[in-house]
Design a protein that fits this description.
Blueprint lengths: L1 E4 L7 H10 L29 E9 L11 E9 L4 E5 L2 E3 L1 H10 L9 E2 L3 H7 L2 H11 L3 H107 L3 H38 L6 H76 L3 H8 L1 H4 L2 E4 L4 E3 L1 H11 L6 E3 L2 H14 L6 E3 L12 H5 L4 E4 L4 E3 L4 H8 L3 E3 L2 H7 L6 E3 L4 E2 L5 E2 L25 H67 L4 H96 L3 H7 L6 H21 L5 H64 L3 E10 L26 E11 L13 H18 L4 E5 L7 H14 L4 E5 L3 H6 L2 E7 L5 E7 L3
Length: 979
């Protein structure tokens, strides 16, 4: 026995409160507080407040009463002003429930009889039977089982709740699982059909691709052969055209003829002069032989006069004829030049016609571009432009740009490239109605009278000087100035820059920009760009030099050029034939005049020769006889010289005549060669046209096959989601051509089957698996919960049975000891404990917190079963008849309560008991009795008694004095007493 003594207010009761608190007390009212912070020291005038409250209780566990492998238990509870709290056993944090269970197993209880404070004596007797039952439950030692049963009941309730929730979830999941199961079965069926469909499609598309590629390869082989033939014929045609051009560029035949004709005429003149000299010389020699110098003078004079007059007449006529011949020769020369020019023009016109025919055939092959580009409506309008009104062409056709700027301007113009420019809105209306009536598609029209130019931003001019800026897009295109508004509208304020880095330096969003690589940066801040394949794909584009996609005039314009070239060729042919006829007439007239000149020249030469002879004869008649011999010798030598010169001139004349004849023959051969070359050129041109037409047809066939392959690839990807390359790499079986149609029908049937099955989301399988997994988990959980429910129900039944047996034994012992201790304290009288039974419906239990141990949960399947509902205390001191313990006096109630506590401690002794001034109401005699009972019980329990009673102090083994100084802090003083 240990007694704690001290004056009132010194803090003695704090010892009991601290023990109760460290053992898990949760009621602040029983701890004399209203809130948790009241437990923490609030300070005093000389002492500051504390930040936490901490109590540590050390228990001796050498007998192993507490089921822990420690000989000494150190239990600590802390509370902080922040509201946080903790329980620690031997430096290990535990829960309150763990602490309560540990103390219950060691026969402790924080709210029953281990710590009995002031006022609890009266409350024990004044409690209701139901409240008193909890005290006796702890007193008979079933607190541990109550805690376990209470936890089991809580688990049972949670298990039932979990079972209910699991069943609800299962009821929700099961219908969905059944629906998903049906869908999965359909999906499996659909997948089987889809797999079969995919295999059939891959065979179908793979076979079609193989045969189309073979057809394309055949077309390309034939195209290569046609190309070789085309090259050969084209080389032959170029050779013929080159030869014709060379023949046309050769020196004019008239010039050569005149040169050689002049040479012949000069030789003839020289010969005539020499013959005249010789005739004169012969006349003089004849005069010498006449031997008579005076007999013919009168006749000679008369004849000389006549010859001089005739010679003058012939000279005048010859001069006139020669003048006429010169005029005609000049006309012939000019006409020949005209004929040669017309011949060259005719040759060039025919070559131009051939080139245009070849180009037109090629461009007709290019018409597929419009069709495959979805611009059939634009092509239709361009072909009917003259019937529809003033149609200038597409935007792409009306401008030309440098090749390095082409891609940037194509991207800047965008969809406007294919827009058709017309003169006014009426023409646009006519074109639209034409397209609508003939169902030829849709085209965009830009009327000149309606389109207005875009306003140029003020800072554009400054930005044009920025490093890396190529220029304003509209400034980089060459076009007719009448289309300025159109291109201003189409290209607007678009700035062409070198690359994206330049654009970022200028500021994205500041102005619309396009890079040379075709990246577009809008004023909204959006950026569009990437790789653009400019080689493999046809695209509508601005014209740039000899671009293969230059569509500046189109097929209709080339058709016009061909018709114009043919018209000019026909006109040139007519002009050439007319000039040839005029040349032949001039040549005939020239020949007549030339013959006349030749006759007059001969007559003149004969006249001059005769006149010269007569004049020499007149001169010889005046010579002396001695002069004749010398003169005759001179004349003979001169005659011999003249004969030699005349003979040489005759040879030269024959050579010149032969040259003229050869020239005439060569000219005739040249004409024949020209005519032959022209016929050969026409033949080669016709053959080339046939080859071009054949090539174009074959190219169109190849384009059709390529288009089929492209469409096939697109269709295959749309249908299977796989490219033809991957299908080819899989090595699918290639079907015979005869089976492709059947396979296509099979594909259609499988598609129809899929349509009958309906569309099922592929996520259904995932959802089914998730739902099935959830269903299985819920089923397993439900099974486990039901098994746990059965185990918990069995556990509660077993605990109930254990508690009933233990309560029965313990209550009987307490009842017996209560009567004994009551008799000792009152020296007689009667006292008894009566169990009150009732039906379950009559039981009213207060709801307690989950972690606070409540009374026994006396649930029963049979609601009419009689159950224990409370404990009634009967006490009658000697010499009195008292039916209600409330009729007892204060001292009697205290002694009765002490008798009951002593009976409990005797029956189920606690390791220690704290009594806080429980004997305060007893007199000295009764205090002696109480002390003697405590001495008896002290052999089984440790007693800590807070008291003012001297008798109790004398009975104690040790005294602890509690004092409090001015700082408001309690101090302990221990005194050990030897008896």
């Amino acid at each position: 026995m240990t007694a704690v003594v001290g004056p009132n207010g010194s803090g003695k009761s704090n010892v009991a409160d601290a023990i109760r608190w460290v053992m898990g007390e949760q009621s602040l009212k029983s701890l004399r507080g209203k809130k948790s912070s009241d437990i923490i020291f609030s300070g005093s005038e000389h002492k500051g407040q504390m930040g936490m409250a901490s109590v540590t209780m050390v228990l001796d566990n050498q007998d192993g009463r507490a089921p822990l492998d420690y000989e000494e238990l150190v239990i600590t509870r802390r509370l902080y002003r922040s509201g946080e709290s903790e329980y620690v056993i031997n430096n290990n944090s535990v829960r309150l429930l763990d602490l309560q269970l540990l103390l219950a197993r060691a026969q402790f209880g924080q709210g029953a009889y281990s710590v009995i404070g002031q006022g609890m004596i009266d409350r024990l007797l004044l409690q209701t039977p139901v409240e008193r039952k909890d005290f006796f439950d702890e007193a008979v030692g079933i607190k541990e089982f109550q805690i376990k049963r209470h936890q089991a009941v809580l688990k049972l309730a949670r298990t039932r709740e979990n079972i209910s929730q699991a069943e609800l979830l299962l009821n929700e999941v099961s219908p969905r699982l059944r629906s998903l199961s049906r869908q999965v079965r359909k999906l499996e069926q659909r997948n089987a059909v889809a797999l079969e469909l995919r295999e059939a499609q891959e065979q179908y598309y793979g076979s079609l691709e193989k045969y189309n590629r073979e057809q394309l390869a055949t077309c390309q082989t034939e195209l290569a052969k046609i190309g070789d033939g085309f090259s050969i014929v084209q080389e032959q045609l170029i050779a013929v055209q080159t030869e014709l051009a060379n023949l046309a560029r050769e020196e004019s035949a008239q010039t050569v003829f005149e040169k050689w004709q002049k040479e012949y005429e000069d030789l003839s003149q020289q010969k005539n002069n020499r013959e005249t000299e010789r005739a004169i010389l012969l006349g003089r020699m004849q005069t010498e032989y006449a031997k008579s110098g005076q007999q013919n003078l009168a006749w000679l004079e008369s004849r000389l006069t006549t010859l001089r007059a005739e010679n003058a007449r012939l000279r005048a006529e010859l001069e006139a004829a020669e003048e006429n011949a010169r005029i005609l020769a000049k006309g012939v020369l000019e006409k020949k030049q005209q004929v040669n020019q017309l011949l060259q023009e005719r040759t060039e016109s025919r070559a131009r016609v051939g080139q245009l025919e070849q180009r037109l055939l090629s461009e007709k092959g290019e018409q597929s571009y419009w069709r495959y580009s979805g611009l059939e409506a634009v092509q239709a309008v361009l072909e009917e432009r003259h019937r529809l009104g003033q149609v200038y062409g597409t935007v792409a056709q009306l401008a030309e740009v440098k090749e390095e700027h082409c891609l940037a301007l194509d991207v800047a113009a965008g969809a406007y490239l294919s827009s058709v420019v017309v003169d006014n809105d009426r023409t646009a209306q006519t074109c639209i109605e034409y397209l609508r009536q003939n169902q030829m598609g849709v085209a965009t029209f830009l009327p000149l009278n309606k389109i207005r130019p875009r306003l140029v931003a003020q800072d554009i001019e400054k930005l044009k000087l920025f490093p890396g800026v190529v220029g304003l897009a509209v400034d980089l295109a060459k076009f007719d100035r009448r289309f300025l508004d159109i291109f201003s509208y189409v290209l607007g304020n678009t700035l062409v820059v070198r690359d994206l880095n330049v654009a970022r330096e200028i500021g994205i969003g500041r102005v619309r920009m396009v890079t040379l690589a075709g990246d577009v940066l809008e004023t909204s801040g959006s950026m569009k760009g990437g790789y653009r394949d400019t080689e493999k794909k046809r695209r509508l584009s601005f014209a740039h030099g000899d671009s293969p996609y230059r569509l500046q005039s189109g097929v209709a314009k080339d058709q016009e050029d061909l018709e114009e070239a043919r018209r000019r060729a026909d006109e040139g042919e007519i002009a050439y034939e007319r000039a040839q006829e005029e040349l032949r007439e001039l040549l005939s007239r020239t020949q007549i005049v030339t013959n006349q000149v030749s006759i007059l020249g001969v007559q003149k030469q004969n006249s001059e020769r005769e006149l010269s002879g007569l004049e020499q004869e007149m001169s010889f008649s005046n010579l002396a006889p001695e002069q004749f011999d010398a003169q005759k010798t001179i004349l003979a030598e001169k005659k011999k010289q003249l004969d030699a010169e005349i003979e040489q001139l005759e040879k030269n004349l024959r050579t010149a005549a032969g040259r003229l004849e050869e020239f005439n023959d060569a000219q005739e051969q040249k004409k024949k060669r020209i005519f032959s070359l022209q016929e050969n050129m026409q033949s080669l041109q016709g053959e080339l046209n046939k080859i071009v037409e054949e090539r174009n047809l074959k190219q169109m066939e190849a384009v059709r096959v390529e288009t089929k392959l492209e469409n096939l690839a697109h269709e295959a990807y749309q249908e299977t989601g796989t490219s033809l390359e991957l299908i080819r790499e899989k090595g699918v079986e290639i079907l015979p051509e005869a089976e492709i149609g059947a396979t296509q029908e099979k594909v259609q049937k499988l598609k129809y089957q899929l349509s009958l099955i309906g569309g099922i989301d592929e996520e259904v399988v995932k959802e089914y698996e998730e739902t099935k997994s959830k269903h299985d988990i819920l089923t397993d959980q439900l099974t486990d919960l039901k098994a746990a429910l059965g185990d918990l129900e069995q556990l509660t039944e077993e605990l109930d049975e254990v508690m009933r047996k233990k309560r029965k034994r313990g209550f009987a012992q307490i009842r017996k000891e209560f009567a004994r201790y009551f008799g000792l304290l009152f020296e007689g009288g009667k006292a008894d404990l009566v169990e009150l039974y009732g039906e379950k419906a009559d039981l009213v239990l207060a709801e307690e917190d989950e972690e606070v141990v409540a009374g026994e949960d006396l649930r029963s399947k049979n609601t009419n079963e009689k159950i224990l509902v409370g404990i009634e205390i009967q006490a009658c001191p000697p010499g009195k008849k008292i039916r209600n313990i409330q009729a007892l006096s204060g001292g009697e109630r205290t002694m009765t309560a002490i008798a009951l506590i002593c009976a409990v401690l005797h029956t189920n002794p606690s390791p220690f008991v704290v009594l806080d001034e429980v004997e305060a109401a007893l007199d000295e005699a009764n205090s002696q009795k109480f002390a003697s009972i405590l001495l008896e019980l002290a052999s089984r329990s440790q007693f800590i008694i807070i008291t003012h009673n001297r008798v109790t102090m004398h009975a104690a083994d040790a005294l602890y004095g509690v004092t409090m100084g001015n700082e408001g802090v309690s101090h302990l003083l221990s005194v050990k007493l030897d008896h």
